[in-house]
Amino acid sequence: MAKKKSEAFEEALKKLQAIVEKLERGDLPLEEAMDSFTEGIKLAQYCHQKLEEAENKVQMLVKDPQGNWGTTPFETGEEKSPDE
Fold first, then answer.
1. Between vectors from CA 23 to CA 18 and to CA 24, what angle results, nearest 5°?
2. Which CATH architecture has domain 5-73?
3. Measured between alpha carbons, how far is residue 17 from residues 3, 23, 24, 57 in Å?
4. Domain ranges within the chain, ordered by starting residue
5. How large is the average pLDDT for residues 15-41?
6. What is the pTM of this model?
7. Which residues neighbour 76 within 8 Å (Cβ) at sequence distance 6 or greater?
8. CB–CB of 39/32 below 8 Å?
9. SS3 assignment for 1-67
């Protein structure tokens, strides 16, 4: 049976966290550290892609001025603040 998408994401995130912890300890031989780094980059890219896909699906329920309910794209909050 195939894993659910959320389970695959969670598993990838756990693997990435373990790699980061290993690399932060700094006791890996150079070649093993480079292999771990490469795997970590791939996992980070995968997780980023899955998060972007989820973000694109998220919509907020809003009420328009006429009192009708509708949807609007989710805003990430990355917009510039007024004092920038």
1. 95
2. Orthogonal Bundle (1.10)
3. 20, 10, 10, 26
4. 5-73
5. 97
6. 0.65
7. 55
8. no
9. CCCCHHHHHHHHHHHHHHHHHHHHHCCCCHHHHHHHHHHHHHHHHHHHHHHHHHHHHCEEEEECCCC
Q: Tell me the pLDDT tens digit for each residue of 39-80.
A: 999 999 999 999 988 877 765 556 677 877 777 766 665 544
Do 22 and 28 contact (CB within 8 A), yes or no? Answer: yes
Polymer length in residues for the chain: 84
Run of H or E residues at 79: none
Q: Are 11 and 19 in contact (CB under 8 A)?
A: no
Tens digits of residue pLDDT in 30-50: 999 999 999 999 999 999 999
Main-chain phi, psi angles of 28, to 5 degrees: -85, 145
